[in-house]
Amino acid sequence: MTTQETAELLAEVQALIREREEEGVRGLAERVGPAEWADLVPHLEPAEVAVLLQWLPDEEAASLLEEVAPQTAAEILRTLTAPEAGELLGDMDPDDAADVVELLPQQAADEILIRMQPSEAAEIRELSVYEPDTAGGIMTPAYVAVNADATTGQAIGAIRRLVDEAETVNYVYVVDAERHLLGVLSLYKLMLSHDETPVTQLMAPSTVRVRASADQETAARLLTDRNLLAIPVVDDDDHLLGIITEDDVADVLQAEATEDIERLGGSQPLNLPYRLASVPLLVRKRVGWLLLLFIAEAYTGLVLQSFEGELASVVALSFFIPLLIGTGGNVGSQTVTLVVRAMALNEVAMRDIAWLVFRELRVGLVMGLFMAAAAVGQAFFLGVSTDIATAVAITVLAICGWSATGAGALPLILRRLGVDPAVVAAPLISTLVDGTGLIIYFEVARVVLGL
After folding, report:
1. What span, in angstroms and rounded, lies between the C-alpha atoms of 408 and 425?
2. What's the pLDDT score for residue 331?
3. Residue 239 has what pLDDT?
């Protein structure tokens, strides 16, 4: 929805709540989906959210909690009674419910779980064992599986029984008596086969799978790279534990992309929606690297101090300092962003550093030629001498080449040193180029101008 549509829906919902129009809210549910309801939650008071959840149909209320961030869902559940919270959790997908329960205080979680159906509570407890950022932490136990001695007809019967409970019926997994994963059946093949055909004749035995302890991003990349609708999750002994579906992967990739963007700005990931972040939390996440970069930037002043004689004799040199260090920082930030992203996609590694540096050197020099031409135009616009314009043009070319080269190598070196390049690389390359760019500038000026 657009901002205007959200504002209009918010006003309508708040008016219905004030006027105690329960039927009006239920009527809205026929044309408003869970994602739209979730957009309203940050703008509603806790009491209004509680009323909304009571009036919405059970499945709609559960879907709303699945759409909001787990932290938000946990806060909402804490405003409800234990029976109300237990009912909502029972209607949620087990993997989403487990994510919410993990964020509740232990006592509150126990009070809610004991009021749920024992089988539903057991599923949530089993999923809560796994770390949230692992494949086990995002999997769901709602899948369809049949024994290896089953027939096509029995597999289709299993689909019919579980179609309302399973996350997806596009794949049916084949297991042995001890639930070791043997293969997978596609719904397409099942529908085209005779009822008496053994499933072992139809299954794909070399099923792609992921360990429950694997990183969630690894699982997400595996599913998307293979263009699958779901991927099975197994333990170290190859027992089938659950599946990860494409909607789970979409959430993971969005979360990982958000983290990468936050890190590229030199900030630690928030791990919760920005709206819910307090001022002290925002400061803690950002001030550390900011102070470090502030200290690192101090050497720029030392460079200027060491060349104060040149600046005093040719004041016009100072006109171009912001232009030069800004250009170097921009080139470096562009390069770092591309390289860090390529590293995240496993497109480049430390073994590629020589190839990468040579590639970025060429890119930097070509861009430097364009920037040098623009710098000459700027110099003549400011009315400085031809010698200064020449010094500025040479410096721009050198800085662009150096910045692109350094920025290409820096993320790979940082990863080898055990430092997250997404956090450090972009701010660090800007800081590094500021000082070294000034050194290049004044040394070039000293030669060209004979200082």
Report:
1. 10
2. 87
3. 93
What pLDDT does residue 337 have? 80
Distant-in-sequence, close-in-space partners of 394: CB < 8 Å, separation ≥ 6: 372, 444, 448
- pLDDT tens, 29-68? 777 787 888 888 878 888 888 888 888 887 888 888 888 8
What single string gives the DSSP state of each residue in 297-325? HHHHHHHHHHTHHHHHH-GGGGGGHHHHH
How far is residue 100 from each of residues 3, 90, 166, measured CA to CA in Å?
28, 12, 20
pLDDT of residue 175: 93
Domain ranges for the chain, please list them.
3-130, 145-252, 276-449
State how far Cα 406 lies from the chain centre: 26
Q: What is the tens place of the pLDDT at every residue in 27-39?
A: 877 777 878 888 8
Task: Please report the DSSP string for 1-69 in residue order.
Answer: --HHHHHHHHHHHHHHHHTT-HHHHHHHTTT--HHHHHHHGGGS-HHHHHHHHHHS-HHHHHHHHHHS-
Going by C-alpha positions, the residue among 293, 331, 327 that lies closest to residue 441 is 327
The CATH superfamily of 145-252 is: CBS-domain (3.10.580.10)
Residue segments in the chain with a per-residue pLDDT below the cut of 50: none
Q: Which CATH number fits domain 3-130: 1.25.60.10, 1.20.58.760, 1.20.1260.10, 3.40.50.1220?
A: 1.25.60.10
Neighbours of 318 (CB within 10 A): 12
Q: What's the DSSP call for residue 275?
A: G
Q: List the structure tokens of 30.
A: 């026929």
CATH number of 276-449: 1.10.357.20
Based on the number of CB atoms within 10 Å of its own CB, is 194 exposed (0-12), middle (13-18) or buried (19 or more)?
exposed
The predicted structure's pLDDT at residue 428: 74
The residues near 415 (Cβ < 8 Å, ≥ 6 apart) are 343, 350, 421
Q: Distance of alpha carbon 167 from its chain centroid, rounded?
A: 23
pLDDT reported for residue 276: 61
Query: For residues 421 and 341, what is the distance between their CA atoms, to the nearest angstrom?
Result: 10
Task: At 207, list the tokens.
Answer: 């099923």
Please, what is the Cα angle at 373 between 370 and 376, to 5 degrees? 150
Predicted local confidence at residue 99, as pLDDT: 85
pLDDT at site 243: 92
Per DSSP, what are the bridge partners of residue 147?
A: 175
